[in-house]
Amino acid sequence: MDKIHPKTLQDLEFPTVLEQLKGRCHTELGKEHALSIVPLKNREEISTVLGQTSEYLSSFTNDNRIPNHHFESISSEIKLLKIENTTLEISGFRKIGDICNTINEHKKFLKKFKEYYPILFAFSETVASTTEIPLAINAVLDKFGEIKDAASPQLKSIRIQINEVKGKINQSFASALSSYHASDYLDEIRESVVENRRVLAVKAMYRKKIKGMVMGTSKTGSIVYMEPDTTLKYSRELNNLEFEEREEIQRILNQLTNTIRPHAILLNNYQQFLAHMDITAAKAKYADEMNAVLPKINEEKKMHLRDAYHPLLYLTNKYNKEKTWPQTIALHPKNRIIVISGPNAGGKSITLKTIGLLQVMLQSGLLIPVHERSSVCLFDMILTDIGDNQSIENHLSTYSYRLKNMNQFLRKCNNQTLFLIDEFGTGSDPELGGALAETFLEVFYERESYGVITTHYANLKMLANELPHATNANMMFDNKTLEPTYQLILGQAGSSFTFEVAQKNGIPYSLINRAKKKIERGKVRFDATIAKLQKERSKMAETGSRMEEEEAKAREEARRLETLNTKIKSKLENYQELYDHNQRMIHLGNKVNTASEKYFHDKKKRPLVSELLHIVETENSKRKKKSAQQTKIDRVKKVQVAQELEKKIVKVRQEKKVEKKKAIFKEKNKPRPVFKIGDRVRLQDGKAVGSIDILEKNKAIVNYGIFTTNVSVDQLELVESKKK
């Protein structure tokens, strides 16, 4: 891909997007890098960066939140490491240690959850983890950033001596303080501190009574601050030891710097990795605020933006609690160029900028606010001519500048180009400028470029209507109020509604009539026809929408009636079968009743048995007997059905086992929550909810109101965190 010109990015307000992105970064290096983002040239790199942002965005809605990536810049420390015989300051070592720990934490997390974040995991594998640097720093510095006593044997020995001398100083000073206070030589405050040393607060009149060194006086001169002789020799010894301590600390820091120096390149890679994570997190947060998604990226040169929002307009309106109107637009090989026409203030320019800005954002690795079923393609070159381009520096008029711009378009445009031109052809004589613009558009079309233009020129509308792979479009207006609805309608040019808008804004009808007489009758009729067609289209769209609703209701009613009819038929068949069965039983019962009455009167068993046998044989003759072969076939079928059923049961059991294993694995790998006192919790196999009263090591005392219980935190589930 070619580099997209900065003027194009300026036209589309991309720098404003980067400023907003910068505001969502947490680190200084991340903010610096955010402002330098430009559209990427490599298609694979675009897909990778978009995938990273999409994965980071998904972490906002699941339990596996990516660790904090905050860090302090170590750029100055890296520069010093590259210079021989330099020594880093303690704060520098602390920042380096923090960065190493953050990197190790990220690598460990992304490795554990690589199934959730495969692209971010692959990125984390580009930097090597290290334990050498943190171990070396931890051996010298404690968690407060102070040099440890155990940093070297010599330092430990010096500090032991320092503590001993300080003890002697305090002891001797306390003795002198007690003695002179008893003699009433000291002021009420008794003692003070001068130059980090304890001194006696001596009344000025008794200064010669005290053996020691004068360290200062009070503002009024009534108090003289003196260090007694008994502590002076220990103070000198302390000064010597403190000097030795500073020398030893400097030697330790030099040695630590030399240990870290060979890893300067690795540390720079760490810093760049975390800066990239900061930008990725900012992109994800930015996407979350505007409901942005990663649309499907196709290779068929098709752009189908569904419910696309202008990002800057959407966020501004969201902040002001105002509605933003989405746009749906499609460009593909059968419809490469769209010519949008219609009155001003209808949303033509916003539609143009929306398409361009979303494309630039996508190719810069940012998610875009469109419907998730949108599909986009990538362009090697994006050319724009939007806004007032008058050049004061070059003394060019707007039209001259635009012609110069068109010359660049003609040199660069091809079948991998997207061009966006606002008010195409304006700035010159309408007929001559329109003719030149028509010629330019024909060239763009012949080179199979993709593009969207806005215009008022009738000849460009006619050309779009004649070219097979170009189409007209207009921004819909309410035909009564002439207020814009901000909906893009493809397939028809838009009227400028020049005279209608003038009349709506209070221009006298007599003046409008005079104006109509000054122009060609054909032009007025043409514009009026377009306006009429546009109104008819609005009515047809409303009628079509209403008919679709009625058709959907009719289809639903037909389905309901068909279902009802099927149920009624089924019930009738059941009733008929029941009726036939009952009639047969009644008939059979009558025969049996007649035979029983005859037996009642004559008491003859043989005729009764003969009659009953006759009745049974008659009923059996009506039943169809199955042949032995048919019985065998039925038996085989039953066996086959049983075998198939057994196979299905085994398969279902295996699938359930696999799902159970996956659930257990996911539960094991699920990061354990960090419990705090006051959190609402429950046992993993229980329903009762209680609150944590006490946490000690790996145990918690849970209060259920009526009783308390002592359980392991591993058995608890977090129901609700304590509200701050």
List the helices and strands and how they pair.
Elements: H1 6-11, H2 14-22, H3 28-34, H4 43-58, H5 75-81, H6 90-112, H7 118-124, H8 132-138, H9 153-182, E1 186-194, E2 197-203, E3 212-217, E4 223-228, H10 229-260, H11 264-289, E5 296-297, E6 303-308, H12 311-319, E7 327-331, E8 337-341, H13 348-363, E9 375-376, E10 381-385, H14 398-412, E11 417-421, H15 430-446, E12 450-454, H16 458-466, E13 470-477, E14 484-490, H17 498-504, H18 509-518, H19 521-602, H20 605-622, H21 628-669, E15 680-683, E16 690-696, E17 699-703, E18 708-712, E19 716-720
Parallel strand pairs: 5-9, 8-12, 8-13, 10-11, 11-12
Antiparallel strand pairs: 1-2, 2-4, 3-4, 6-7, 13-14, 15-16, 15-19, 16-17, 17-18
Question: Can you summarize this structure?
Answer:
The chain has 724 residues and is of the alpha/beta class. 55% of the residues lie in helices and 14% in strands. It has helices spanning 6-11, 14-22, 28-34, 43-58, 75-81, 90-112, 118-124, 132-138, 153-182, 229-260, 264-289, 311-319, 348-363, 398-412, 430-446, 458-466, 498-504, 509-518, 521-602, 605-622, 628-669; strands at 186-194, 197-203, 212-217, 223-228, 296-297, 303-308, 327-331, 337-341, 375-376, 381-385, 417-421, 450-454, 470-477, 484-490, 680-683, 690-696, 699-703, 708-712, 716-720.
